[in-house]
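Structure Section — protein described below
Tokens — whole-number codes for backbone shape
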Amino acid sequence: MLSVASAREKAEKLVEQARAAGADAADAVYVGERSSGVQVRKGALEDVHRSEGEEMGLRVFVGSKSASVASSDLSDEALSALVGRVIAMAGEAPEDPYAGLAPAELLLCGELADLDNWDAIEPDPAALKARALEAESAALAVAGVTNSNGGSASASASTFALATSGGFSGGTRASGHSCSVSVVAGEGSGMQRDYGWHSARHAEDLEDADAIGRRAAERAVARLGNTKIVPGKYPVLFEPRVAGTLLGHFSGAITGSSIARKTSFLQDRLGEQVFAKGVTIHDDPFRKRGIRSRAFDGEGLPVRAMNIVADGVLTTWLATSADARQLGIQPTGHAVRGVSGAPGAGPSNFYLAAGERSREELVAAFPRCILVTELIGQGVNPVTGDYSRGAAGFLIENGEIAGPVAEITIASNLKDMFLTLEPGSDLRFRRGVDAPTVLVPEMTVASA
């Protein structure tokens, strides 16, 4: 894996070669990664692995035609052959009037933001094994747990660099540490499974393995039993672990490509009320040690923190330069990309801001409601917003858990859900997409 400076230099050189070979414009991406991990089960080591790799991608434009290629062979000979190949491919590609690099005048200039995403600590296999064993041991010690699916711990590091013929060159590096465990509670047909997991950029920010294990076990034990429910309309609460999926459906619906293709249930809703008043959804690329923090977007454009939804009103699409040309707007700095293909659009650290009422207050507002702790399957139509998913969780009566529920289906339409949902006050930043407990006042609930 190259240093950031060397990765930038290699990307810049590849762009220069493409231009010299006849490309009107080009950009190049370098991605280098390494990872190591350990898996254990029932106190015994099951697997130790380590991987290292690096790739480069080159995208060229010849007039309004474009093509891209990628290679894991980064020798000078291989990259030179890559240039000739992609130029020939572009000559055979269809015309695309919206294709092209980001406008040069909009590219990021100056120093990159310090995101503090790099941790020099690289645990050895013995340390990873100890962490995985601690998580599993803590889980197995909880009464009611009968089996283990295993525990794991891992560490990773990556370097990313981008260079464009428009004048941008930048690179970043990031690290990652994670720990997880999955256990089974109960016996026979009544068995239930659950898990605990956490990841962080720095090892010192990783949750204690003991806490991860105990949480996994307590969740599995709490799911034992099955409470029958009467099908009908219920208030439904999504706990934070699953509430973020609603933000995933939302972000997919506001990408420029979905809007341009007219395949979004939020088509033509820009500037309109799509969530309840008071709801804020924020995108923060500059969060220190954030899982999705980034100093620039996938086209070399500056990024900025912004409210995607302010007081319930949708304020922007998430658009790459190609999307923006098609929509007649400016690119929004949300391009994301790998080593091959054109960039797509997506948020960075994306979260639903906390509301005023606690989970306990939300639950107490209804004589009966459903708390969803797990979602199963897909069942979401991105064009219409129709929403129907398998779920598991708990029936709550008069503010108290009446018992676990499993194999139920919850259904509504995302447009209605967004307009009526209320966020709880229990927001914590633990993932790239975060939400507090979310209340949807009415959904159709049935046994699966």
